[in-house]
Design brief:
Chain lengths: 469, 145
């Protein structure tokens, strides 16, 4: 009887299954279990998922103001729809966040890759605070201590990088630690340590440490072309009054540091440069706050490694109230955060704004890519994590923070808040949609003469050029 | 024209341009093993006939996407044993499109089944001890809800 398919055929069938089904059929028989936990299968499943998926799923981490040590995650589909918000109920769902920070506020998200999210809990305690988390199968791994800690090293600043080493089918975390010198400057060269998931251990290598500093405060990296990238500076090259800025890269397979040049006009402004990835290409955002201007420019390196190929693709005028950009969407859109902590989608071509109807603490937003995978299948269960990962002593009350509650808060803005939002947006065309963005309802608009209303609330407002629709 | 011999002695004639959808047959022809006929000891006559039906249709209606889609949907409406025979043949003959189609069919079936149903329908013996099976289930209890 040939109901027995060869192992590689079963594996081929399994690569087409979602992770939840795979977790179930592990218990069908020993053959199925061994196929599914095989690392070769796990990476083949990832490749298949990436190649076959027609839509793009992202996650949003946000914080609610006045809540302490609580983080919220939403999964949403990147499906542009100008009428609705990507955070509407039908397009997104809550993701359970099972960890408790030991710091005063929240985890640092290093990056996400192949279904793994790398988190860091900044604290002075003995554990590394680094967690690799696979939310799709509810598994996590606490990384062991690296060598460099404040106990062994004194005061220092460190930068983390996370990504996938394709050559060795391994996930790696790189930790670049700069000791603080007497003047408070970061001492170069730094101490470098590398964690490999396959070996479950840290390895130091300082022979290859980069002769550069890295701007660690942004907590941002870009993982592209198999390397982790950060914005840094060369202390030996000074342009004007500033060290020359550049991009410091660490190749995860070759395990070497390299440098990539920034656009030349940004080399003296590296402090305002934020590194990111734009549809698979290395990119930077430059925030330019001048006397009469506030811009964010999006630069993309069209050909990796070729300094001449930097191209400024878009310029976003921030004077409408946008504070920063946090994630690119399809159809030339980008998610932006206003100075009041509201999320908007901004069309890079038409400048059209769409209110995403979600609000949170201004500095606490993070957007990253999400996918289902089986990496960390054999690691600890995060389903029970709440008890085991907390600092142990407290049993804090959880606030009821479901989506419904968040949305209700968005509706509670009073007239003054709405008006301040509107003034800060100051969109001259299409005032009608601007009003709607700020929470005015259609009834309010038709009931009142908007110019009168504005004058009522803010007597000194300048209403020149506004039209009443 | 290429002549193919199944495991149970049946003979089939098929045009070379159609037959090379099978990478296995293609390599045999390139290696000059196809002088008189190609023996396929791993595929029986009934299954080989079905496979040839598939590759003939996909050769002649190459650009008719809609037509091929409905052909494929009908093609896989066979009993479990036959489906497995076709998978094994597609695997041995290295016909990517047919392997993709049949594997996707089985995957879609599995998605809707419980563990017990998978065992029953695919005739698989449970070789776990009750303790081993319980541990596997408890490891990811949430996935079974």
């Amino acid at each position: 009887m040939s109901n027995h398919l060869p192992e590689e055929v079963w594996a081929g069938i399994f690569t087409r299954l979602p992770v939840k089904t795979l977790l179930q059929i592990r218990s069908v028989c020993k053959l199925f279990s061994s196929i599914i936990s095989n690392p070769t299968f796990i990476s083949a499943h990832i490749k298949k998922t990436i190649n076959e998926s027609h839509s793009h799923t992202l996650f949003l981490r946000y914080l609610i103001e006045k809540e302490r040590q609580q983080e919220h995650y939403l999964l949403f589909a990147d499906s542009s729809d100008h009428k609705n918000s990507i955070f509407d109920e039908h397009n997104c769902r809550k993701l359970d966040f099972p960890f408790k920070t030991r710091s005063k506020c929240h985890f640092r998200i290093v990056d996400s890759c192949n279904g793994l999210i790398c988190l860091n809990d900044d604290n002075d305690f003995d554990t590394s605070g680094i967690i690799l988390w696979n939310p799709s199968i509810k598994r996590f791994l606490n990384l062991p201590n690296p060598r460099v800690t404040s106990r062994s090293y004194g005061s220092y600043m460190y930068v983390l990088g996370f990504g996938y080493d394709e050559k060795n089918d391994d996930y790696k975390v790189v930790r670049v630690a700069y000791k603080k010198g007497r003047s408070g400057r970061d001492l170069i060269p730094p101490e470098v340590e590398l964690y490999s998931l396959n070996s479950r251990s840290w390895r130091s290598f300082n022979a290859g440490a980069p002769p550069y500093g890295i701007f660690g405060y942004t907590w941002l990296q870009a993982f592209v072309n198999g390397a982790v990238h950060w914005v840094g500076y060369d202390p030996c090259v000074v342009k004007g009054n500033e060290s020359c800025g550049l991009i410091v890269a660490f190749d995860l397979s070759d395990e070497v540091f390299r440098e990539v040049m920034l656009p030349s006009c940004l080399e003296q402004h590296a402090w305002d440069v934020y590194i990111t990835v734009f549809w698979g290409k290395l990119a930077v955002l430059h925030y330019d706050y001048g006397a009469h201007k506030n811009f964010c420019s999006v630069w993309v390196m069209e050909e990796y490694g070729l300094a001449d190929s930097w191209k400024k693709l878009y310029t976003v005028d921030l004077r409408g109230g946008l504070r920063n950009l946090i994630g690119f969407l399809r159809n030339d859109e980008v998610i932006g955060v206003t100075i009041r902590g509201k999320l908007l989608s901004y069309d890079l071509i038409t400048s059209r704004i769409n209110n995403l109807r979600l609000r949170g603490a201004v500095g606490g937003f993070h957007v990253g890519s999400y996918m289902e995978s089986l990496v960390l299948l054999e690691a600890e269960s995060a389903a029970l994590a709440r008890e085991s990962i907390t600092s142990g002593n407290e049993q804090e009350e959880e606030q009821a923070t479901d989506l419904h509650a968040v949305k209700n808060r968005n509706d509670e803005f009073d007239d003054q808040e709405k008006l301040e939002s509107f003034l800060s947006l100051r969109i001259s065309e299409q005032n009608y949609s601007a009003y709607l963005c700020c929470g005015f309802s259609e009834q309010e608009l038709s009931a009142k003469n908007s110019e009168e209303w504005v004058k009522e609330l803010v007597p000194e407002a300048n209403c020149d050029g506004w039209e009443n629709d | 024209m290429i002549v193919l011999n199944s495991s149970d002695g049946a003979t089939f004639e098929v045009e070379e341009s159609v037959a090379v959808q099978s990478q296995t047959i293609k390599h045999m022809i390139e290696d000059n093993c196809a002088d008189t006929s190609i023996p396929l000891p791993n595929v029986n006559g009934v299954t080989l006939a079905r496979v040839l039906e598939y590759i003939k249709k996909h050769a002649e209606a190459k650009d008719d996407e809609e037509g091929l889609k409905s052909f494929d949907a009908e093609f896989v409406k066979v009993d479990q044993a036959s489906l497995f025979e076709i998978i094994l043949a597609a695997n041995y003959l290295d016909i990517k499109g047919l392997l993709d189609l049949t594997c996707q069919t089985v995957a879609d079936q599995i998605k809707d089944l419980t563990v017990e149903e998978v065992r029953a329908i695919f005739n698989i013996m449970n070789d776990f001890t009750p303790e081993e099976e319980a541990k596997l289930r408890n490891d990811h209890a949430w996935a079974f809800e």
